[in-house]
Design brief:
The chain has 491 residues and is of the alpha+beta class. The protein contains 14 helices and 18 strands. Among the domains are: 8-60 and 173-244 and 350-387, FAD/NAD(P)-binding domain; 246-339, D-Amino Acid Oxidase, subunit A, domain 2 (D-Amino Acid Oxidase, Chain A, domain 2, 2-Layer Sandwich); 421-486, no CATH class. Strands 3, 4, 5, 6, 11, 12, 13, 14, 15 and 16 form a ten-stranded mixed sheet that branches. α2 links the parallel β1 and β2 (47-50). It binds flavin-adenine dinucleotide.
């Protein structure tokens, strides 16, 4: 049996992190850190990246999964932000078509409730224009009767008509993993389940203390000339950080699509907020909430009040569906790492990003969205390259496909791939999966899609155990940890 019961490639990565010196250490393997690592590696920098938990275990596996300009920010006058994100959504669709499935969004208009139809018609035309060279498909308007024919279950009372515009559906955790696969292919050295516990400035950069979570792996020191703090909701807890965050929680629910048979995504309003009903294969994703959060970022969870809010908001617009908590197949809760603005409601806080350097060779990168991660990374790596006095190597991430030509997607596009022994073994050998939850929650994502997936955990733990050499006690512990992470009660 493998002594540490962890994937064999991991010990090589840890010993390289401890023995080599790097141009850049990226702390945080969410989408922002992964994007930074890929960009820097593509420009020829020696890059290391660590995450205290699994890659994508923070906010980047808990989003609404949209590549979007953000239609609602137009109403807030944030035209620059919408244009920036709209251009990025087109770029991401180009470099990772398997992770950007164009999707129509129907936004119905009601008398005396939400934005009027005329405003929506102008808004979606402007939205198309801001994509530069056209959106995935042009937007259009629908009369009241057309809207009713399209969405028979939609509330008819006060309905004036609707518009349809286009964004794309992605798979957030898979976007992180494919970005990291590309970073590693270009030389980045990566370790998940390894926490940065300290960082001291030294003459030629930073000396960083790193502690793997597994007690069988020894803490070590890593030397890097520069460091990027890409720790999302944890960014203001890092040593030397200059960040002030305001965390807001967002919850999503998944229900069967036959309970809410929508051909396109639908936008529903709740006061000044909007929520989405998003078709996802045989399922529908409903969300999200937006409430201030002051607790431990690792403890964020779906509460009964979140479920009640989403069901109430959706049922108001789809009264015949009459969804109840028993319809829910899965839920997830995430934290928006927004740049602090103590005033205003959570939904009013800007989604703009910030890159700051509080000390020479250290950058904090915060805010932004999944959609804008590539641009955030480009700007951060530009700053790092300037600091290192490197000739300005051009950024290539807008052009280089995320997957190498001819590479399969391992069955993982925007829907979870089949849960097979081969898929699990691949995720352990080639995608850094160390624990059962790494496979089930992030790489496979089956737990959110399949009903009663808990029953499959012993079988998957056995498959994983074959690769890494888990005994029965370890398999039981992995199953218990996975259930706990998902908030599933003990078997
Ligand atoms: C509910 C919700 C819906 C959203 N929907 C969308 C959407 O549809 N489209 C969109 O574009 N954006 C969306 N967003 C925003 C988007 O998801 C986030 O902006 C993005 O995922 C943040 O990524 P990140 O890399 O900054 O943070 P994270 O993904 O949280 O990554 C930070 C990582 O740092 C690690 N870390 C922390 N401390 C340490 C340490 N000391 N040592 C090592 N590692 C550490 C953590 O473990 C974590 O993995 C949504 C956000 C939420 C919450």
């Amino acid at each position: 049996m493998n002594a540490s019961a962890l994937p064999p490639a991991r010990s090589t990565a840890l010993s390289r992190l401890a023995s080599e010196s790097f141009d850049l250490l990226v702390v945080g393997g969410g989408i922002v850190g992964s994007g930074v690592a890929r960009d820097a590696a593509l420009r020829g920098l020696r890059v290391a990246l660590v995450d205290q938990q699994d890659f994508a275990a923070g906010t980047s596996s808990r989003s609404t999964r949209l590549l979007h300009g953000g239609l609602r920010y137009l109403a807030q006058g944030e035209i620059g932000l919408v244009r920036e994100a709209s251009l990025e959504k087109k770029i991401l669709h180009r470099i990772a078509p398997h992770l950007g499935q164009p999707l129509g969004f129907v936004f119905p208009a009601y008398r005396g409730e939400g934005p009027p139809l005329w405003q929506l018609r102008i808004g979606v035309k402007l939205y198309d224009l801001l994509c530069g060279g056209g959106n995935f498909e042009p937007s259009r308007g629908f009369s009241r009767d057309q809207t009713r024919a399209l969405l028979p279950g939609l509330k008819a009372d006060g309905l004036r008509g609707a518009v349809r515009y286009f964004d794309a559906l992605t798979n957030d955790a898979r976007l992180v993993l494919d970005t990291l696969r590309s970073a590693a292919r270009h030389g980045a050295v990566l370790a998940n389940h390894t926490r940065l516990t300290g960082a001291n400035p030294v003459a030629d950069g930073w000396e960083c203390q790193l502690t793997p979570n597994d007690p069988s792996e020894a803490p070590f020191t890593l030397r890097a000339r520069t460091l990027i703090n890409a720790t999302g909701p944890w960014a203001d807890r890092m040593p030397h950080s200059s960040v002030q965050l305001r965390l807001t929680k967002g919850v999503h629910l998944v229900v069967d699509r036959h309970r809410l048979p929508v051909p396109d995504a639908v936008v529903v309003t709740e006061g000044k907020r909007i929520l989405f009903v998003i078709p996802w294969g045989e399922r529908v994703i409903l969300g999200t909430t937006d409430t201030d959060y002051a607790g431990d970022p690792a403890a964020v969870a779906t509460e009964p009040a979140d479920i009640a809010y989403i069901l109430r908001s959706v049922n108001e617009f789809f009264p015949t569906a009459a969804l109840v908590p028993g319809d829910i197949i899965s839920t997830w809760a995430g934290l928006r790492p927004l740049v602090a603005n103590p005033d205003g409601s959570p939904s009013d806080i800007s989604r703009a990003h910030e890159i700051r350097s509080p000390r020479p060779g250290w950058w904090d990168i915060t805010g932004g969205k999944l959609t804008t991660y590539r641009l955030m990374a480009e700007q951060a790596v530009d700053a790092v390259a300037r600091h290192l006095g490197r000739p300005p190597a051009p950024c290539r991430t807008a052009l280089e496909p995320l997957l190498e030509p001819g590479a399969g997607t391992d069955g993982s596009g925007t829907l979870p791939g089949p849960c097979t022994r081969t898929a699990v073994a691949h995720q352990v050998r080639a995608e850094w999966a160390c624990h059962l939850a790494d496979v089930v929650v992030r790489r496979g994502g089956w737990c959110y899609y399949e009903r009663d997936f808990a029953a499959r955990l012993p079988e998957i733990a056995a498959w994983m155990g074959e690769v890494v050499g888990w005994d029965a006690a370890r398999r039981e512990r992995e199953i218990a940890d996975c259930r706990a992470e998902l908030g599933w009660s003990a078997a």
